Amino acid sequence: MVVLNGLDAVERAVGCELGVGSWHTIEQEAVDAFAEVTGDHQWIHVDIARAAGGPFGGTIAHGYYTLSLLPALLADAYDLQGFAMKVNYGLDRVRFPSPVRVGTSVRARATLASFETNARGARIVIRTTVEIRSNETPGCVADTVTLLVA
Fold it and tell me: Has this prediction a pTM greater than 0.90?
């Protein structure tokens, strides 16, 4: 795990890979629970029998479910320390290049894309790529924006 302590350490890491998280298996039960919470019950996510004959050969995770996993997927990849708080500020860009089939494993790779100081600390952008085991095309690529309050 990469640990960066304070603004100077974070700024020096621009352009560097912050880390790679552990593999996480996508389970149908979690996809079904996400469908319940969001109301997105599209058959490609929740109807196992119908999805087996569909374009992906089985059910797939919602793109937003994959995106929602970023904190868990990166929990053991890196840690930013020495801040009063870290605030999720939003997303600059999100893409879902490849479907994530239920039963496959994913992990996240994070790179510090940018750093900009402000009155309270800094605003950083982390490019996160969700890799799918045995698939060259990622399931998600997202630029997350975080405020680091010193």
Answer: yes
